[in-house]
Amino acid sequence: xxxxxxxxxxxxxxxxxxxxxxxxxxxxxxxxxxxxxxxxxxxxxxxxxxxxxxxxxxxxxxxxxxxxxxxxxxxxxxxxxxxxxxxxxxxxxxxxxxxxxxxxxxxxxxxxxxxxxxxxxxxxxxxxxxxxxxxxxxxxxxxxxxxxxxxxxxxxxxxxxxxxxxxxxxxxxxxxxxxxxxxxxxxxxxxxxxxxxxxxxxxxxxxxxxxxxxxxxxxxxxxxx
Length: 225
Hints:
Blueprint: H1 2-8, H2 58-70, H3 78-87, H4 95-108, H5 113-163, H6 171-223
Helix pairs in contact: 2-5, 2-6, 3-4, 5-6
């Protein structure tokens, strides 16, 4: 099921040459703009701005889609509807017709527009729950790898500031602690980059999946009545 979810969310397998394209195809006729409901998401601390492009880490792709798989609702819902939409990918018809055609088929399976929207929102909540779990784990990692080292840096800076006021005999001790400070600065910088890379990798995968659901919610609201 996980492999099927990857295919319907257009996420390339690791090592593939092509990159996922999450942009919706252009339609020839202008349509009235519809706005999808904006779900509540976990706050991004420290003014963090997630990357909007890049290759997703397969570990986080599997984590997010695995959570969706575990919370897959019974019956014909948004996931099956999206799969039906993907099946129309090579059919020559405009985007609206594809959404309407997929809904017509979905109705034969007992699905409704409201049901599709409700189930899509369900999967958005599943993603948001995974985001909250990730941020909790991330904060623990940050505390262990960054904050402790940062505290060491602060303590050394205070020690240096005090000892520079002392007599000449303390010069050697001050120089040793300056060297230790530089070492901790380098270690801190490496730790910051490591945890940021982990966060970037998560949000690359998170946004690819989330943006497609948001996009489908907009189009369901725009094309389906």
